[in-house]
Specification:
Elements: H1 2-25, H2 27-36, H3 42-56, H4 62-69, H5 79-98, H6 105-121, H7 128-160, H8 166-206, H9 218-234, H10 237-246, H11 252-272, H12 278-292, H13 300-328, H14 332-353, H15 373-381, H16 388-400
């Protein structure tokens, strides 16, 4: 029993570490557009997001039930499996944070849990129907739905205020961005904080502390909410830079449309118990809003790297989770080895990140990405702006017909007599 108690303590602490990384990894979902458009100062934005994440953690436990009672079969799951799953999720979160790619913390957690469960008791331990209906389908649908909604919303906002003054509309939409960013933060708390609640509850059931089918205890809800709020306040500045400036250039109207659309999708999924990726929803909304403005573009090379990271999340976290489970099941020394490996990896990634620091002082400093093939082709066939043809023609004449050489003052004047 003493071994189980120690193991459970390690699992709970590791779960809260994951929750912390989830917070700073996903801060960009709520605040990247608000920071990039100047609606809020960076530190103010992350502080507001942290508070609302904490509040959101207390609003629902439906997603926690999906994690703790639906994704895998509770019978036969040992605390070592939960520890291994968390190791896979934390390392994937930190690696994608290091390279500034917004990937799904939710899918990292579920991938690690699926991989560790399969390594422990086989494929039968995973509820395939739940994985498909509440994980994979929402993963595909969320960015598409949020992106389409954001694109239509952005076009509508530009149409409605086409006759209004620019300064007045931007001021109004910045205020709207603050409200919508708060809504996204609240939605993030109702969805992502619950994932850690669910994983801790599953560990307590596996360790015999709770009976199968139990809801998260109050102390689990409080600790998970505080951990994700602290991580959010730290600010995942690398991913905020990518989401705010790397995917597209947003104006306040687009930022408002993106955040409102994403928040609606996330809150709807939370009420249905879908373990939705807030990253997928917000990233899709940002790209959709980028396309919603006439002349707006999406930097598809950055988007492609992000899509690749999305596709690798489940299998990569699953493989690490399976390997960690194999070591952890060997006994006490295996558990300590996995824990030491996790700590060493976290420290190494942090040291590498110090080589090029990104924080609130330089989060909006982004080098312009070279134009891609599609952008170059569009620019080549697009008609020039009004008034530019004459300017170009005039410039060509100047370069083709040289100006007459100035007269030499020393030369004698030409005689006017015949």
């Amino acid at each position: 029993m003493e071994h189980i108690t120690l193991l459970l303590t390690i699992v709970v602490v590791t779960a809260l570490v994951f929750d912390f990384t989830n917070g700073f990894h996903d801060t960009a979902n709520a605040m990247a557009t608000t920071i990039s458009t100047g609606a809020l100062k960076p530190k103010t934005a992350v502080a507001m997001s942290a508070v609302l994440n904490l509040v959101g953690a207390f609003l629902s436990v439906e997603v926690a039930k999906t994690i703790s009672k639906g994704l895998v079969n509770e019978e036969g799951i040992q605390p070592e499996v939960i520890l291994a799953a968390l190791v896979g999720a934390i390392l994937w979160n930190l690696l994608t944070w290091l390279v500034g790619l917004p990937s799904s913390s939710s899918h990292a957690l579920m991938g690690g849990l699926i991989g560790a469960t399969i390594a422990s008791i086989g494929v039968s331990g995973v509820n395939g129907g739940v994985v498909v209906t509440k994980v994979l389908i929402p993963a595909l649908a969320a960015p598409l739905v949020a992106g389409l909604a954001a694109m239509l919303a952005a076009r509508l906002t530009y149409r409605l205020d086409r006759n209004a003054g620019k300064k007045t509309t931007e001021k109004g939409y910045r205020a709207g961005q603050i409200a919508s960013a708060g809504l996204v933060s609240l939605a993030h708390g109702t969805n992502d904080a619950q994932k850690t609640m669910g994983i801790i509850t599953l560990a307590l059931v596996a360790g015999g502390v709770l009976v199968p089918g139990s809801n998260p205890p109050v102390w689990v809800i409080v600790s998970a909410g505080v951990a994700i709020a602290l991580g959010t306040y730290l600010g995942g500045w690398r991913i905020i830079r990518t989401m705010g400036k790397g995917l597209t250039d947003l104006q306040p109207q687009q930022g408002f449309a993106a955040q409102t659309s994403a928040a609606t999708v996330i809150l709807a999924s939370s009420s249905l118990g879908f373990s939705l990726s807030t990253t997928h929803s917000c990233s899709g909304a940002v790209m959709g809003a980028g396309l919603g403005r006439k002349g707006g573009v999406v930097r598809w090379s950055t988007a492609t790297r992000m899509f690749v990271a999305w596709g690798l999340t489940l299998p990569a976290a699953g493989l690490v989770g399976a390997g960690a489970e194999y070591v952890a099941r060997q006994g006490d020394w295996g558990v300590y080895t996995v824990a030491a490996f996790l700590v060493a990896s976290c420290v190494a990634i942090w040291l590498v990140s110090r080589r090029q620091v990104v924080d609130h002082t330089n989060v909006n400093d982004v080098e312009t990405e070279p134009a891609g093939v599609v952008t170059t082709a569009i620019a080549a066939v697009a008609p020039p702006p009004p008034g530019s043809v004459a300017a170009v023609a005039d410039e060509e004449l100047k370069t083709t017909i040289p100006s007459p050489a100035p007269a030499d003052p020393a030369a004698p004047a030409a005689s006017a007599t015949v």
